[in-house]
Amino acid sequence: MFANNVLGTKTSAYCIMELRLLVETPRARESALPFIVIEGKQWSLTEPIDSRSDQFPRYTCISYVWGTGRAANPIHPIYPMSDRTLPEGHTGEHGLHLRPRDGCRRGALGKSFTALEQVCAWNVKQTPQPDGTCLGDLETDTWIRSAWAYQEVVNSSRLWFAGEDIRRNLLQGQFVLDQLGHYLLKYGQSTQATSAKLRGRYPHLDALEELLLDWRTADYVERPALQVMSGISRHNINWSDYKSAFYSMIGAITQEPSSRTSNPTLESLSEAFMSLCERKGDFSFIFSSADRDDRAGYRWRPQCDILPSILPWHCFGEQSARRDAQGIWLQNIVTVTVSPTIGSAGRAVVSRWLQNSDLETALEGEIIRQASSTLVEMGFSGSNDVIVTSDGLLYPQRPLPAELPFRIGVARSLRWSGDVASPALVFVAEADHTKYIPGVFIGVMPSGASEVLLET
Description:
single chain; alpha+beta; 22 strands; 456 residues; eight-stranded antiparallel sheet; globular
């Protein structure tokens, strides 16, 4: 698929998406259409295809990083292409998807991803064999860090990996996931490294494993927003390319295309993502580490800025909500109470989570210290001012205001891998409004759940 960007008139600053598939055509000495020849087969572009159509043809996406080099485009001469594009032109019977050049064009792909038959990921200089021989190449490869790679992989039915040595067999995505996970597990056992420490040593390999896990476990556009935020946070760590990040996030939770301005702002993209989540009834986005909105009625909501996950780790479940005349009710929220010490059950669970059974009899301060250190290794950027409860530990993103009453609500139906940690909200009662501080809870999930009203 090849995408062009057609700008509107002076009164319209919206991008119009033009989608074309690159398909095999009969060989001919003369052709009215520009074409390329790959391994004896002739390929040409189709006429534009409506990206909103329910009859979008099945196609193959070749996922790779454009890089900075450009070359003349033999099949659409008015638009240059990456100098890495043509070597990727090797596929099966389906059409090819040649990656568009920027987020404005990518933002409108929408429903076309429902027709995505398979993705062929082209990344390192050799076909990735996760057996330790090329882990350095994988760790430093730019494809793993690409926000677009996230959207393309999680929306695909089938996934293949290949390198420049294309004539070797392609590797199935499941094989790469199995082998990579097996190697990292064995490496961790041999070095006595916890999962969090492995992430510190191989952050991008860990991100690749999580991406493949997301691809295998979540249905198309059905993953929680928090998982999408976590995935993007791992692939675009400093959010420098926020446009690509938000377009990929939107494309991972909806199949519907939407109009995009030709020069979207960070605020408008953030608002578009959160509004879409609210319409879907997915309020897991509120567990972002971003500062809260300061507008009355919206103080529970992250401000319109980048939206990193409070803990960029694989999560599962949901955070639903309902609306009525009173406002927005978060569902399946469990209240935990502050305690002078951690209860025995909570202490045991936290110790197992830290993979250190000796902590069950250690001083409480040592448990708190190790839990804080592990959260930082996992990507938590919040406060060390831990709140001790009878069921476990709560680490807020921001220090709590002194001497103000508060209560803690933990998401019962949204958990991080390991089934021990969950996102939480601290409700601080200020003079004339409620202050909302997100946090990470580690411990035993108490029984029972209720709804909590957000101030609107």
